[in-house]
Design a protein that fits this description.
The complex is a heterodimer of chains A (257) and B (292). Chain A is of the alpha/beta class and 257 residues long. Chain A contains six helices and twelve strands. Chain B has a single domain, classed as Outer membrane phospholipase (ompla), Chain C (Beta Barrel). Classes of the chains: A alpha/beta (257), B alpha+beta (292). At the A-B interface, helix 1, strand 6, strand 11 and helix 6 of A face strand 2, strand 5, strand 7, strand 9 and strand 13 of B.
C-alpha cells in the first residue's frame, strides 16, 4: 500500500512539474510579444579602470580615468539602434547617463543583489530612474545597458565596465582589456524588467579567463592617468563591443541570427 | 579525512553531471564558430527570473584520490573524483579553492572577506573494508554542516577558518584553520601551499579513536577514551597547469600528522600511523554551450 501511495505522489509531482514547465515555456515566448517601440539607454562609457592582480603589493586598489571623449555610449546606442531597427521602431532617448551608471553597484551580500530588483518590490531602482529621468515616456520597452561587475583572479577581485587587468606572475605578466556590461529589457508600461543578460565572453581561446567580453592586450600598459592617449586601447574596447553586442541582444531574443 | 567528505559531495555533483549529459549529447554545433555548441531546443524560463538563454561554460573532468581508508590508517585506497560545473557567461570566475575546503557559498563577499555556510561529509567506516579495523564497531557516514570565513589581503595569500557540526556518525564539532600562498608561476601554472590545523571535540573524535570494552575484547586492543582538541597539524600543496584554454590538469598533496588523542589511540599506535598523506590528480575540459 505504501508503495502505491509513493508512486501516486511521484506521478503527481511529475504532472506538476510538466504543468509548470509548460507555463514557464509560454512565459518565455510571451515576454517580448507586443513590443513595437523601443528606446536605448547606454551608461558604461564614462571611465576606464585599471586593475592589478596576481603578484601585487598590498596597495593594489583599482584606478580609474575618464574616457567620455571616446564616445563609447554613443557608439553602443548607434550600433544597437541599427540591430534592433530591423525588428522594432527605435526612438532616440534623452537621459542623464550618470544616474544609470550609478545603478550597477554590487552589494557585499550577493543574495541582496537578487532581491534588489525583485519585481514584487515597490522600489526598483531601474523603474524609478526610467520613470523620473528618461524622455520620452510611453514606449513599449526600454533597453538599458549598464556596467557589469565580474569577479576575477584567485580572490575574486571585482572588475567592472571598461578597463584593463594587468596580471603579474613570477615569470611573466599579461594584460587583458575588457568591456563588461549587462543589458536589461524593461517593460515601458509596467517598468518591470522583462529579461536581462550579461554580455558573454567572445571565445574560449584565452588562458586567463574573464567571463565577459575581453581579449589579451599586448601593447605596453599606458600611464594610468591618461588612457585617452592610447588609441589602441580605444580600438580594442570598440572591437569588444562591436563583436559582443549583437550576440547579447540575440540571447535576449531581441534579434534573430 | 576531509577528502572523503568532498568525495561524497563530488558524487552528488556527478549525479548533476549525469542529468546534464543527455542534454549535452543532444547539443549540436550550429554556430560558425565550431568551439561553441548550441542546444537545439528552447529551454523553458521561469517567470520573474532572467531566461537561461545565453552562453554557458561547461567543465567536465575526472580525477583520482589516493589516501588511507580511515583517519589513522595505513592501507591506501583509490577513489574516483568526478568534476563538473556549468556557469553562465558573466557569472564570475572560479576563485581559489584548496583541497581542504568544504563545499560552500559566500553569502558575504567584500573587501577580500568572504563568509558563508559549508557542507561536507565523511563516508562510513566499515570494519569489513580494512583488516586494521577488525573487532571495531562500524561508524556511520557523517554529514557536516557549518560555516566558513576567509580573507585575502592580496591575490596571493588566503587564510580560512571552517567550523562544522557533524550529524549521524560523528555527532561533534570539527574545525579547520588553513593558510595558502598562491603563486602564479606564469600565466599557465599556479602553485599554492600552506599549513593546516584541524580540531575536533570529544564527540567528533571518539567514534573514530575510542575503544570500548566490547571492542577491546573483540579486537585485542586496549580500552581507550579519546578526547577532543587539536587533532592534526599538516601542510598541503597544489599545482594547476592550464595545458590549453580548454584543458587543465591539477594535482595535490596533503600531509597531516595526527596529534593528541587521535595520535595516542591504540588504533593509530598499534594498527596505523599518525602520518597521513593523501594525493589527488585530475584533469578537466571546458567548452562553451549556447542555450537559446
Amino acid at each position: 500500500m505504501r508503495g502505491i501511495i509513493g508512486w501516486r505522489r511521484l506521478g503527481s509531482a511529475v504532472a506538476a512539474l510538466l504543468a509548470l514547465s509548460a507555463c514557464a515555456s509560454m512565459e518565455a515566448t510571451n515576454r517580448l510579444q507586443g513590443i513595437k517601440t523601443i528606446g536605448i539607454i547606454s551608461a558604461i562609457g564614462d571611465k576606464f579602470t585599471f586593475t592589478e592582480t596576481g603578484l601585487t603589493g598590498f596597495d593594489n586598489a583599482p584606478h580609474s580615468a575618464s574616457i567620455e571623449a571616446w564616445g563609447i555610449d554613443e557608439q553602443i546606442v548607434a550600433q544597437a539602434t541599427s540591430i534592433l531597427g530591423r525588428n522594432f521602431q527605435v526612438q532616440t532617448l534623452s537621459y542623464p547617463r550618470e544616474i544609470f551608471a550609478a545603478l550597477e553597484k554590487k552589494s557585499a551580500i550577493p543574495a541582496a543583489d537578487l532581491l534588489r530588483e525583485n519585481p514584487l518590490k515597490r522600489e526598483d531602482p531601474f523603474k524609478e530612474s526610467i520613470v523620473n529621468h528618461v524622455s520620452p515616456q510611453g514606449l513599449d520597452a526600454y533597453v538599458v545597458i549598464t556596467k557589469a561587475t565580474l569577479k576575477f583572479g584567485t580572490r575574486g577581485v571585482p572588475v567592472s565596465g571598461i578597463g584593463l587587468i594587468n596580471h603579474s606572475a613570477l615569470l611573466n605578466s599579461s594584460a587583458m582589456v575588457h568591456a563588461l556590461y549587462v543589458i536589461r529589457v524593461v517593460d515601458g508600461h509596467t517598468f518591470r524588467t522583462i529579461d536581462k543578460k550579461t554580455a558573454s565572453p567572445l571565445d574560449n581561446s584565452s588562458i586567463i579567463k574573464l567571463t565577459g567580453p575581453s581579449r589579451p592586450f599586448d601593447a605596453a600598459v599606458p600611464p594610468i592617468s591618461d588612457p585617452l592617449q592610447n588609441e589602441s586601447l580605444k580600438v580594442a574596447v570598440s572591437d569588444l563591443i562591436n563583436r559582443s553586442l549583437e550576440p547579447t541582444l540575440r540571447d535576449l531574443h531581441l534579434t534573430t541570427p | 579525512m576531509q577528502f572523503e567528505g568532498r568525495a561524497v559531495l563530488l558524487r552528488i555533483l556527478a549525479a548533476g553531471a549525469a542529468a546534464a549529459l543527455p542534454a549535452m549529447a543532444c547539443a549540436q554545433s550550429a554556430q560558425p564558430d565550431s568551439s561553441v555548441w548550441t542546444l537545439p531546443v528552447t529551454v523553458p524560463s521561469v517567470p520573474f527570473l532572467p531566461t537561461p538563454s545565453g552562453l554557458w561554460t561547461v567543465t567536465i573532468g575526472a580525477g583520482g584520490s589516493f589516501q588511507p581508508y580511515f583517519l589513522g590508517g595505513t592501507h591506501y585506497t583509490l577513489s574516483p573524483i568526478p568534476i563538473f560545473s556549468a556557469q553562465p557567461g558573466g557569472s564570475g570566475q572560479h576563485q581559489f579553492i584548496s583541497p581542504r575546503d568544504s563545499g560552500g557559498i559566500a553569502l558575504f563577499d567584500a573587501g577580500g572577506f568572504r563568509a558563508g555556510p559549508v557542507i561536507a561529509g565523511l563516508p562510513a567506516r566499515k570494519a569489513s573494508n580494512d583488516s586494521a579495523l577488525n573487532g571495531l564497531n562500524d561508524v556511520k557516514s557523517t554529514i557536516e554542516l557549518g560555516g566558513f570565513v576567509e580573507y585575502f589581503p592580496v591575490d596571493w595569500f588566503r587564510a580560512r577558518a571552517e567550523v562544522r557540526r557533524g550529524i549521524r556518525g560523528a555527532d561533534g564539532v570539527f574545525a579547520d584553520l588553513t593558510a595558502d600562498a598562491i603563486v602564479p608561476i606564469w600565466d599557465r601554472l599556479t602553485w599554492s601551499a600552506g599549513p593546516r590545523l584541524s580540531f575536533a571535540n570529544t564527540h567528533a573524535t571518539s567514534p573514530f579513536f575510542s575503544i570500548d570494552q566490547t571492542e577491546a575484547l573483540a579486537s585485542g586492543l586496549p580500552v581507550f577514551n579519546a578526547g577532543g582538541g587539536l587533532q592534526s597539524v599538516g601542510v598541503g600543496t597544489q599545482l594547476r597547469y592550464q595545458v590549453t584554454p580548454q584543458w587543465e590538469v591539477h594535482s595535490t598533496i596533503e600531509y597531516q600528522r595526527l596529534t593528541g588523542d587521535a595520535a595516542a589511540s591504540p588504533l593509530t599506535t598499534q594498527r596505523g600511523s599518525p602520518n597521513q598523506t593523501s594525493f589527488t590528480i585530475g584533469g578537466s575540459y571546458s567548452f562553451d554551450l549556447r542555450v537559446r
